[in-house]
Specification:
The protein has 331 residues and is an alpha/beta fold. Helix content is 43%, strand content 11%. It is built from twelve helices and ten strands. Helix 3 (51-67) links the parallel strand 2 (43-46) and strand 3 (75-78).
Length: 331
């Protein structure tokens, strides 16, 4: 992969060990995917934040790179941590776990990474613009950014997203390249999507059936809300490796393979994913809940008592907005 003279200086260690490590990582990824060069990215969203996920090896890596002087040079945001950073005692998180989690957060803080701690970084300030290159790691947010917002990002890993935040660069391959964003499959939607669940079931079927393709969905309602599109993006990212889908009228490719999905197939997916077993908790918010979703939950819960524990997960930003609107108190 071609590197500019300034990029070569970074790779040679002339700008410090941390930036050298970041460049080595991005250059290796670029070589692996045969990227011709680096491109500038405007923001990074970093996964691998929870101590439950990265453990001691991940914490050691963060300590090493942060102590080496690494600093984010573009807007850098975090995926959710392994606990509520403000209410961890109330939620009975073990102190040993909390101490490790706070060590992780301190590493990111020292690198000037914003402690957004959300998997929906597009809800709030600084959502990417159309055609803007970014380096995001949360898989559902990647699909949303590419498909709904029109930004350009690959499904980054936590270390590569962190490296991009330090250098403001990413290798030019995959979803950054116009040719790679062209649809490969045409999905004929032969039924109406009436509920949020329908969108989730469609996404799950697409991810399971179409692997890492770029599907074009014929019949997807143009008036689909961001919350329903979020559900669609999340489920296809969870069941497969799709990084982007295309709407009606966007993108042309005569070589597309055609597949169809009907109501019976969605019902079968619903049956396969459902269970009649008893449960103790209802957990909502994966991906994180939006303000509109919290409003809906508040209206449904108002004046009622639960027979099971209800936990609602969202970002601190959305939670604060929901508190101002009275939704938190209602729930």
């Amino acid at each position: 992969m071609y590197l500019t003279k300034s990029e070569e200086r970074i790779l040679d260690g002339e700008e410090g060990q941390a930036r050298q490590l970041a460049m080595k990582l991005l250059a290796a990824i670029g070589d692996a995917y045969q990227a011709p060069r680096m491109i500038k990215v405007r923001s990074a969203q970093i996964s691998g934040v929870s101590y439950k996920t990265i453990g001691e090896p991940g914490l050691d890596f963060l300590k090493e790179i942060s102590s080496g002087g690494a600093v984010a040079t573009i807007r850098a945001m975090l995926n959710p941590a392994g606990m509520d950073l403000a209410r961890w005692k109330e939620l009975r998180v073990p102190r040993e776990f909390a101490e490790k989690q706070f060590e992780i957060m301190q590493c990111f803080k020292s690198m000037k990474v914003e402690p957004t701690c959300t998997c929906i970084p597009y809800h709030g300030k600084g959502a990417p613009l159309k055609a803007e290159h970014i380096a995001w790691a949360e898989s559902s947010a990647v699909v949303f950014a590419n498909s709904v917002l029109g930004a350009r990002t690959n499904r980054e890993g936590g270390p590569t997203a962190l490296a991009s935040s330090i250098l403001g660069l990413s290798p030019l391959y995959g979803m950054h390249v116009e040719e790679e964003r062209r649809p490969t499959h045409l999905v004929n939607l032969e039924c109406k999507l009436n509920t949020d669940l329908d969108y989730s079931l469609l996404g799950y079927w697409m991810g399971r059936s179409l692997a890492s393709s770029v599907p074009k969905i014929k019949g997807l309602p143009k008036a689909s809300s961001h919350d329903r599109l979020k559900a669609l993006c999340a489920s296809m990212a969870a069941s497969g490796s799709i990084s982007m889908f295309v709407w009606d009228g966007n993108g042309q490719n005569e070589q597309m393979e055609t597949v169809s999905i009907n109501k019976d197939q969605l019902s079968e997916i619903d049956r396969l994913l459902s269970s009649n077993e008893d449960f103790q908790h209802v957990a909502l918010g994966c991906p994180h809940l939006s303000l509109d979703e919290l409003k809906l939950i508040a209206n449904l819960a108002s004046g009622r008592k639960t027979t099971k524990k209800l936990w609602c997960f969202t970002s601190r930003y959305v939670r604060d907005a929901a508190q101002q609107q009275g939704y938190v108190a209602m729930i």
